[in-house]
Amino acid sequence: MERFVERAVVLSTLDYGEADRLVVLFTHGHGKLTGFAGGARKSRRRFAGALEPCTLLRAQLVERRGTTHRLDAVDVERSFHALREDLSLIARALYSVELCRELTRDHEAHPQLFAALVDYLEALDAKRAGPTSLIAFELAALAHAGLMPRFESCAVCGGEVGRHAVFDPDHGGVVCHRCRERVSRGVPVDADLAAALARLQAGARTPMPMEQRVRARELLNVFIAHQLGRKLRSVDFLKHVGLD
Predict the structure, then answer these.
(1) In whole angstroms, what is the distance from residue 51 CA to residue 8 CA?
(2) By the 8 A CB rule, do 3 and 23 touch?
(3) Residues 62-107: pLDDT tens digits?
(4) Do the Cβ atoms of 135 and 115 come closer than 8 Å?
(5) What is the chain written as a DSSP string?
(6) How far apart are the C-alpha atoms of 124 and 96, rounded to whole Å?
C-alpha cells in the first residue's frame, strides 16, 4: 500500500455508518480522490473539525484496493475563517468547490486548477474578491478542465461576433448572426458581453457592470449545465444569497 502526503482542498463530505466519514478531496498531485476517515465523527482529537468543505489541508493518505483511499491524519494549512462569516462569501466558496468536483475526474491531476482554486479561496478569505472574480474563476476552471467556451469569435465560422449573436452550448461558444440559422437554440448575447468575457479569459481583471455580470452568469450556467448534464446544486444558493 502506497502512503503519501498531499496538499488538498476538501470538496465535500458524506457521513458513513455511525462514526465514519467519506471525504472528497481535490489534491495537487493526485487530482480528485475520496478518503475514508474512520471514526472521524467521534474522534475530535484526530481530525479536530478539519474535514469541512473549502478547508486547505495536508492530508496523510494510504492507497487501498478499489477507488477509496484511507485518510489517516490531516494538518490544517488554511481554514479560511473569514469567508465563513459572510453568507455571500460562503456561497461563492461552495460554488467554486462544487464546480471543481464536477469538472474533474478521479485520479487525474490538475495542478493549475488546484492552484486557481486555492488562490480564489484565499482572495475570498481576504475579502478582495469582487463579484466579477467569480466569473473569472469559472472561466479559468473551464479552461483548465479543457472546456473553454469561445467568446472572441464565432464558434461556427470563426468570424467576428458582431451584433444579434447567440451563445450556443452545442457549438461551445458564441455564434454570429450569419450562422444563427445553423443552431437549434441559443441565448442572446451582444458584442460587448462577448468581448468582456473574452478579456476575462485572457487574464484581464476589469470589473463588469452588474447587468453584464448577470447575463454572463446566465451564459455560463447554461454552458456548465450542458457540459455536466445537470445544473450545479449551489447555483440556486448563489441566486438566493446574491453577489452584490
Answers:
(1) 11
(2) no
(3) 988 778 899 999 999 999 999 999 999 999 999 999 999 999 999 9
(4) no
(5) --EEEEEEEEEEEEEETTTEEEEEEEETTTEEEEEEETTTTT-HHHHTT--STT-EEEEEEE--SSSEEEEEEEEEEE--TGGGG-HHHHHHHHHHHHHHHHHS-BT---HHHHHHHHHHHHHHHTT---HHHHHHHHHHHHHHTT---B-SS-TTT-----SSEEEETTTTEEE-TTTGGG-S--EEE-HHHHHHHHHHHTT--PPPPHHHHHHHHHHHHHHHHHHHTS--THHHHHHHH---
(6) 11
Amino acid occupying residue 93: A
Laid out side by side, the sheet with 173-175 consists of: 173-175, 165-168, 187-189
- Largest alpha-carbon pair distance within the chain? 64
pTM of the model as a whole? 0.93
| Alpha carbons 136 and 103: distance in angstroms, whole number | 16
